[in-house]
Description:
Elements: H1 2-14, H2 19-28, E1 29-34, E2 44-52, E3 57-61, E4 70-72, E5 75-76, E6 79-82, E7 86-90, E8 111-118, E9 121-133, E10 136-139, E11 151-153, E12 159-166, E13 171-175, H3 176-183
Antiparallel strand pairs: 1-2, 1-4, 2-3, 3-7, 4-5, 6-7, 8-9, 8-11, 9-10, 10-13, 11-12, 12-13
Amino acid sequence: ILALLFFLNAISVAAQPDTQMIDRTLRSMVKVEFMLPGDDEQGHLCTGFVISASRGEALTARHCVPEGEFFVDGEPSRVIRESDALVVVSVAKMKKPPLDIRREQVKLGEQVLSFGYAWKEMSVFGRGVSTRLDKDFGLDGPLAPGMSGGPVVDMNGKVVGLNQASNDRVGIMCGSTEILKITTVK
Length: 186
């Protein structure tokens, strides 16, 4: 019994995220804001994260960038590259650190951290990867409004996904394979 308790404690300690990694991830995040015709003064808020500070590029979810005007960290932005689910947008060249993207796909049962501007406030949610859905993955808990486009990172701070959508039970993230396709500059 003591050996089992020691093993369970070692797992829970190993699954604790590093606060420096969390701080670095938070520093790499950007706000993506836009208005749609007929919107009130509130507008819409999504999340993105820096993928190249030197090129001035951030990544977010495709549905976070309308056809018209949008802003990243309060500055006008433009689309650089896009796919059906993801979009690389311009950001002012800055000191924000880019995030590393993990080459290996996330595994079912893996513990991850989901970042985003939940209800307009910077938030971090611990989640488990619960489902494989073709190219996407389900997280064991919903995403909050504003988290779309935010990074999902493993316990080492490597991006394993991007927040896409949610219902009242499950959050959906795009996996790192799709992220690497759009972020790898040729």
